[in-house]
Amino acid sequence: MSSIIQLLPDHVANQIAAGEVVQRPASVVKELVENAVDAGATEIKLIVKDAGKTLIQVIDNGKGMSVTDARLCFERHATSKIRQAEDLFSLHTKGFRGEALASIAAIAHVEMKTKQDQEELGTHIVIEGSKFVSQDVAVLPRGTSFSVKNLFFNIPARRNFLKSDTVEFRHIVDDFERVALAHPNIHFMLFHNGSEMFNLPQSNLRQRIVNVFGGKTNEKLVPVTESTEIMGIQGFVGKPEFAKKNRGEQFFFVNDRFIKSPYLHHAIMAAYEGLLKDGSQPSYFLYLDVPPHTIDINIHPTKTEIKFDDDQAMYAILRSSIKHSLGQFNVAPVLDFERDASLDIPYEYKEKESQTPLIQVDANFNPFADEKPSRAFSSSSGGSHSFGSSFNSGYKKQESNASWESLYVGLKTATEEIDVSEIQFESEEVTGSLFGENEVETAGNRTYQIQKKYIVSPIKSGMMILYQERAHQRILYEQFLTNITMHQAASQQLLFPLELHFSQSEMAMIKELRPSLENTGFVFDAMTTEILVISGLPVNVAESEVGLLLEELIHDLQGELPESSFSQSDRIAKSMSRSLSVKTGAYLTEKEQESIVNSLFACKDPNVSPFNKPTFITMGVEDLDKRFAL
Ligand code: ADP
Ligand code: MG
């Protein structure tokens, strides 16, 4: 019988291996930047075009390579970092597998220029899909420059699988930040499509964190230091009051390598116990120093997971040292007996000038108009304006409306019933769907809130149960989408412009979104690399919510969800509707409940939330009869 097993040719083996090492442009960035760090560079410049799909270039001033090494580095399992298996237990470098360059060269067009300090001339190599195209001697500065073009040119399936530039660039920034945070003594720069996104000069750790995440970060940081036999801890944790809704700023480094550890994360959360609002996430930047022989970093191909010999002890040490630091920070002012704490101005107000209270006048208010809640919506099947002026703006300022309305309490009559049939008439989509012929006609005039989550309302055929949060999301979503596409949003002018601080990469994102955001009603006065000055807001956004709203928006748009195939406007509208909707757990007045019911059925697509979840269900009398027949 003939034998059928063959050894794969090198370029095929490399291409297969590349699948593991290079998932997306960010993987290339990570490998090249780490190589530059390993080469002892003090300055590393990263240049990216089209989120790395067109070009990724890394220029370092490290030790460079000899002619032979320059050729050898593209071979698989070619590394200068370990020689024998034991070396794995005393690693001080980022790389050690010797497969990154071979993998990258197998699936892209790579050009490398490198020169060692003591040499007169350097080497210039071009390699495409594992094939050496050229090798020359060249006059070069000290160090190495890699440029990687046309990533995945020979694996179209991979190329097509890449996400939008926004998402891919976010991944690059993530990896860039991780290396930059681990090495504050190296000057890092990042350029994207010709503009400078980061310029991080050599500095200490605290300055590096502040340079990456913006000037405001400084006041949020509480230092943590601990030194035990098992490990040393250096770094900072965020003050609890600055905790965020997402897990953006959480970093663990072990021996200067970024790692993920759900177990140690848990230790940190345990240290914050009782200090955080529900579901909010503290920032942390923690650098653990562990004897190399007590860890195994080899258990994950991309090396972000790690195995510790004694993770239980680490858990305990980490938790108690963070608790200690937070305690010191919290307790410090109380122990300061010299000062009368009651005289202290609350921190946030220290630098604020006093503000004249805003007087809000509703120009449209006509005391003689015979107002019914449903009226505001009756003309709203296509227009967003009536939403804005009635339901949405009323939402946040409900108290102020409520105060004059309370004068009329005694005059409330049964005429204030929800005229759903009128809505049904207005927005035809509703008729065909869940409600049969004229079914929506209300049997009564009341809505009830259940568990601060559902709104129940009787309808002719039985009853209807709305999911308050989802229903409100739908209402806001359609409103924002109309505003963005029709450019017709109203905006509330702020008396004192609002100054918000963002990191450089967040600001880049806001710049990209600016036109759409302005269509929702935002007015931006000025934008520097870190500060955003806002002088107008969409009518339904309260001043206190803006920071969180934009933060969540950036987070949503950078994430993989919602699907990148949707338009940017759609994703903005989705994100904002999720941020601003009334949440489960929010008490709603009867008027607010009615308002939600009415506005929902004036929507084009009231049946589902923007995230495709049902917004309401109905229960017919027959259903109820069945239940009682049991
Ligand atoms: P590894 O980093 O795991 O050793 P790589 O494929 O990333 O494997 O790199 C192979 C070798 O090429 C490295 O061990 C190093 O000797 C050399 N090398 C790669 N990049 C650089 C650089 N920027 N400067 C100097 N040498 C480099
Ligand atoms: Mg490497």
Automatic annotation (TrEMBL):
Residues 446-588 form the MutL C-terminal dimerisation domain. One of its GO terms (cellular component) is mismatch repair complex. InterPro entries: DNA_mismatch_repair_CS, DNA_mismatch_repair_MutL, DNA_mismatch_S5_2-like, HATPase_C_sf, MutL/Mlh/PMS, MutL/Mlh/Pms-like, MutL_C, MutL_C_dimsub. Keywords: DNA damage, DNA repair. GO terms for biological process: mismatch repair. Transmembrane segments: none annotated. This protein is involved in the repair of mismatches in DNA. It is required for dam-dependent methyl-directed DNA mismatch repair. May act as a 'molecular matchmaker', a protein that promotes the formation of a stable complex between two or more DNA-binding proteins in an ATP-dependent manner without itself being part of a final effector complex. This is DNA mismatch repair protein MutL. It comes from Flavobacterium limnosediminis JC2902.
